[in-house]
Design brief:
Chain A: InterPro entries: aa-tRNA-synth_II/BPL/LPL, B3/B4_tRNA-bd, DNA-bd_dom_put_sf, Fdx_antiC-bd, Fdx_antiC-bd_sf, Phe-tRNA-ligase_IIc_bsu, Phe-tRNA-ligase_IIc_bsu_bact, Phe-tRNA_synthase-like_B3/B4. Chain A: It is found in: Cytoplasm. Chain A: One of its GO terms (molecular function) is ATP binding. The complex is a heterodimer of chains A (667) and B (296). By secondary structure, chain A is of the alpha+beta class. Helix content of chain A is 29%, strand content 26%. Chain A has a seven-stranded mixed β-sheet with strand order 19-23-24-28-27-26-25, sandwiched between helices. In chain A, a hairpin with a 6-residue loop joins β25 and β26. The longest helix of chain A is centred in the last third of the chain and has 19 residues. Chain B has 296 residues and is of the alpha+beta class. Chain B has ten helices and ten strands. In chain B, the strands form two sheets. In chain B, strands 1-5-6-10-9-8-7 form a seven-stranded mixed β-sheet, sandwiched between helices. A three-stranded antiparallel β-sheet of chain B has the order 2-4-3. Chain B has two domains: 46 residues; 228 residues, Bira Bifunctional Protein, Domain 2 (BirA Bifunctional Protein, domain 2). In chain B, 40% of the residues are buried. The longest helix of chain B has 30 residues. In chain B, β3 and β4 form a beta hairpin. In chain B, α3 packs across α6 and α3 packs across α8. Classes of the chains: A alpha+beta (667), B alpha+beta (296). At the A-B interface, α6, α9, α11, α14 and β25 of A face α3, α6, β7 and β8 of B.
Chain lengths: 667, 296
């Protein structure tokens, strides 16, 4: 619902800026979704939940403000002097369906002049997004927005037989509503009819025929209460909704009804020069007894999990217009005001107290739960690696930390110190804490080979023990062994890093350790200048027939660089252009400088560069090789033209020639 | 050689020698070929010719859908708080979606729950709160469950709305459960899922099946609460609805509302995932563009 800041101030004194007011209202459950300056006022867009129809009027919001700041609501003056003409002489009203219309009031105002409404009223209506029409229509809207009670004005002279009947529609009857919609009515709908036909769809919308026009002189002011479900069903089945039906569906205030009617009559008298006929027609059914509820203090405290003092509780209820009937140490008896149809149980009172007391003042307890544990980063890293590698067909293995002292097990790629010996080993053959996981993986490969498993992909996450002065350094390592070639396993390792959110480029430096790796087919892996691991094809000395590849990584270092915060990158909408090049370069020039050289050209729409083949052969001069690469160009904001890509490609080719002497190989 | 005995005796020796030398020759040639094939290509590659800096061959890897990842994370946090995972049907009786949850027919709050209907009293559930009722009907307190799953609402599809989405419902019922406990559990979850420094705020609100009810906001992770377009410059973003189970809901499942109290909460999985990764369009989850799926 939209309300005006200055209009609200008229009913409750407060010293809050628009933003402060918005925050306070939000904190009691009236979310202010937006504040918009309109002329010299502010329009608040307040989200009113469906249980609080009382807040669908400025006075309702003023009550909440009063409860927050501790003031009282100032109601507008609804007194007026009426004429000697009694209303009963001008109109008769009958309600045939008291269950669907529990309360109907009518007032009659004679000799009005339809004209624009006063500027102050128009300004307020504009502020909340309503279009001023004329004084009568504006006043019914104004009072509805003020009190939350919908009203309707009929042109009395067009009401046939000076008679109003609240009845069910006769199937087949039709009505043209004020908005121009023509609808056939059915027996399950409630209408306001005159002596001849329906003049309004009860609670939903008035009819076109009796609508206020410039020639209207006398009006009938209707202010009623309709059964919420009835209004909702009718509104939905006719496909007509209005500010009135919105309020009736949610329930209106029986007690405030007459005040709204008087308020509108008074304004019409003031603004249109009309004369109010004496008396009013009131048709009510049943006795509306005020609801009485008992709030047990113990229940309040137990349910909220905090102790709110009795004085404070009583004060909150009073501020919310609940009448305190009885009050002692253990309970408070209250009477619920008519506008709070949503409050009818003890639990509803508890919510009211909690809401005004402040949800933020209720402590966050953990008595019913153990503390939620959060995984440490190292644990997430290991879980991620295990899931990733098993997904690629790797088996996780567990091998002993205590190993033998054979030359293979004595390999130490992490430090130059020898392994730590056990003083009293169980067996002489196994007496040392290992310094690498790879020998154990190699043995596992051998074991499986002997048992008929030719192809193998295994990994282990475990510690290696590097001697220090007192206690050793226990380094967490990840090692893999896979029956695949160097570049395949390198690809797996690179994908693993990406999976850990590591975007940092690794440097691959040729490395040799002939007991483990085949000469020329191994590398030391560095990140930021520090060694994070080794990768290489298994040494022929290990005696495997097929090509096997080994990796060992420092998991502490890699885990530290892992980054699991992901940010979504918009998908590029424009097409990518792919170009293949074959370069003739000297044998000693590796891929790494070629890639760096291309990236350094800083072509901003170069998305990716890949090498897909290295070729040596007859057509290639001795001492040279041909490197085939693929460039992928894609811009965020446009489709690239052929010329743009040509220019960029030429720039890359020129740079490669200048920096590395690389030549484009002629096809 | 099997033919030798069939030959005349005088020719057998010569023939045998000839065949034998042929055999040796073929063996040698074969050996050479085998050794060439198996060893040579590797051994002849000179060390300096192999380039270790060449990019690796990327393996084909798959990923779990980001929504599954979020649900898994949520399950994990609540598992550590002692919550079991429960499921319920998606094609549901109107009773479980509405009446049992204190949403009577023709009630204005039904407007907040537009629903796909199959038949008069059969619908596609518009909320996972249905599972609360199904579990409580079967089980006596204490109850401690979360219920993840698909829900359906006839919303026009746009960047913020999808006619099908996911929710995770939570329910805890026991003796002596309070609003303060609700705050405690939600705070544990929010810290575990969004980070230890995230702030939480509860605002009074209205849901028919809880009383008191609250909307739960967290400090905006995009701008650290300073104000940005994601949080509409308020510094807060709404992530879930919660409250104390309404006594009318207990009545529907024949629980003694005087003896037992409890709380329930529900969150949108898409919304939480979008906030976590800065995803700006809910449709991306269901387009399944691999360029999208590969990012998580």
């Amino acid at each position: 619902m939209k309300i005006s800041y200055h209009w609200l101030k008229e009913y409750v004194p407060f010293h809050l800026s628009p933003q402060e007011l918005a925050d306070r209202l939000t904190s009691v459950g009236l979310v202010v979704a937006d504040i918009k300056p309109v002329e010299d006022d502010f329009c608040f867009d307040v989200e009113v939940t469906s249980n609080r129809p009382d807040c669908l009027g400025v006075i309702g919001i003023a009550r909440e403000v009063a409860a927050i700041v501790g003031g009282s609501v100032l109601f507008p003056d609804t007194n007026f002097i009426s004429t000697n003409t009694e209303i009963s002489k001008t109109i008769t009203v009958a309600v045939e369906e008291p269950l669907l219309c529990p309360h109907y009031t009518a007032r009659v105002i004679h000799h009005i002049t339809v004209a624009p409404s006063p500027e102050w009223m128009q300004k307020r209506l504009r502020c909340i997004g309503l279009r001023p029409v004329n004084n009568i229509v504006d006043i019914t809207n104004y009072v509805m927005m003020e009190t939350g009670q919908p009203l309707h004005a009929f042109d009395l002279d067009k009401v046939a037989e000076q008679k109003i009947l609240v009845r069910r529609a006769i199937s087949g009857e039709e009505i043209v509503a004020i908005n121009g919609a023509r609808r056939a009515l059915f027996h399950d709908m409630l209408v306001i009819a005159d002596g001849k036909k329906p003049v309004a769809i009860a609670g939903v919308m008035g009819g076109k025929e009796t609508e206020i026009s410039e020639s209207t002189r006398n009006i009938l002011l209707e202010c009623a209460q309709f059964e919420p479900r009835q209004v909702r069903r009718t509104s939905r089945s006719l496909g007509i909704a209005s500010d009135s039906s919105y309020r009736f569906e949610r329930g209106t205030d029986h007690e405030g009804l007459d005040r709204a009617s008087r308020r509108a009559a008074r304004l019409i008298k003031d603004c249109s020069g009309g004369e109010i006929a004496g008396g009013a027609i009131h048709i009510t059914s049943g006795i509306h007894e005020a609801k009485k509820i008992t709030l047990r203090m113990e229940r309040l405290h137990k349910l909220l999990g905090t102790e709110i003092k009795r004085d404070r509780t009583r004060d909150i209820l009073k501020r919310l217009s609940f009448k305190i009937l009885n009050d002692n140490e253990n309970f408070i008896d209250v009477e619920v005001p008519g506008f709070r149809g949503d409050v009818y149980r003890e639990i509803d009172l508890i919510e009211e107290v909690a809401r005004i007391y402040g949800y933020d003042k209720i402590p966050a307890k953990t008595s019913v739960c153990v503390r939620g544990n959060t995984k440490g980063k190292a644990e997430i890293v290991e879980d991620t690696i295990r899931q990733f590698l098993t997904g690629l067909g790797f088996y996780e293995v567990k091998t002993f930390s205590i190993v033998d002292t054979t030359p293979l097990q004595s390999i130490n790629i992490w430090s130059d110190r020898v392994g730590i010996d056990i003083a009293n080993p169980l067996r002489q053959e196994e007496s040392r804490l290992r310094t690498s996981l790879l020998p154990s993986l190699i043995n596992t490969k051998g074991y499986n080979l002997n048992h008929g498993t030719e192809q193998i992909k295994i990994f282990e996450i475990a510690k290696v023990y590097l001697a220090e002065i007192k206690l050793p350094q226990e380094k967490n390592c990840l090692s893999l062994l896979a029956d695949a070639d160097f570049l395949t396993v390198k690809g797996i390792f690179e994908a693993l890093l990406r999976n850990l959110g590591i975007v940092l480029q690794c440097e691959w430096i040729p490395f040799s350790e002939s007991r483990l790796f085949r000469d020329g087919r191994a590398a030391k892996i560095q990140m930021d200048g520090s060694t994070v691991g080794y990768c290489g094809e298994a040494s022929p000395a290990l005696g495997f027939k097929a090509v096997s590849c080994l990796v060992e990584v420092d998991l502490d270092l890699v885990g530290e660089k892992a980054n699991f915060t992901k940010k979504y990158q918009d998908l590029l909408q424009y097409p990518a252009v792919s170009r293949d090049l074959a370069l003739l370069v000297n044998e000693e020039i590796t891929w790494s400088p070629i890639e760096k050289c291309i990236m350094d050209t800083r072509v901003d729409f170069l998305k990716e560069v890949k090498s897909f083949d290295v070729y040596r052969g007859k057509q290639i001069p001795a001492g040279k090789k041909s490197v085939a690469l693929n460039l992928c160009f894609q811009a965020k904001d446009r489709t690239l033209t052929g010329e743009e890509v040509d220019t960029a490609q030429q720039k890359i080719v020129d740079t490669l020639f200048r920096m590395l002497g690389a030549e484009l190989r002629k096809a | 050689m099997k033919l030798i005995p069939t030959l005349p005796v005088d020719k057998r020796v010569d023939f045998g020698k000839g065949v034998n030398s042929l055999k040796v020759e073929i063996d040698a040639a074969l050996q050479e070929l085998i050794s060439k094939l198996s060893v040579q290509p590797v051994s002849k590659v000179k060390a300096e010719l192999f380039d270790v800096t060449l990019p690796g061959k990327p393996p084909f890897v798959g990923k779990k859908h980001p929504l599954t990842q979020t649900i898994d994370d949520i399950k994990e946090v609540f598992a550590s708080l002692g919550f079991d995972v429960a499921y319920g049907p998606e094609v549901e009786l109107e009773y479980y979606n509405f009446e049992a949850l204190n949403i009577p027919a023709d009630h204005p709050s039904r407007t907040d729950f537009d629903t796909f209907y199959i038949k008069d009293d059969v619908l596609l559930r518009s909320q996972t709160s249905t599972v609360q009722i199904r579990i409580m009907e079967k089980q006596k307190p204490p109850v401690r469950i979360i219920a993840p799953g698909r829900v359906y609402r006839p919303d026009t599809v746009d960047a913020r709305h999808s006619f099908m989405f996911h929710q995770v419902e939570g329910l805890l019922v026991d003796e002596g459960v309070s609003f303060a406990d609700l705050k405690g559990v939600l705070y544990q979850f929010i810290k575990a899922y969004f980070g230890q420094n995230v702030q939480m705020r509860l605002r009074p609100s209205f849901f028919p099946f809880t009383e008191p009810s609250a909307e739960v906001d967290i400090s905006c992770s995009i701008c650290d609460g300073k104000g940005c377009s994601v949080c509409s410059y308020s510094g807060w973003v709404e992530i879930l609805g919660a409250g104390m189970v309404d006594p009318n809901v207990f009545k529907a499942v024949h629980y003694d509302a005087e003896k037992y109290t409890g709380f329930a909460f529900g969150m949108g999985v898409e919304r939480i995932t979008m906030l976590k990764y800065g995803i700006n369009d809910i449709r991306l989850f269901y387009e399944n563009d691999l360029r999208f799926l590969s990012q998580f």
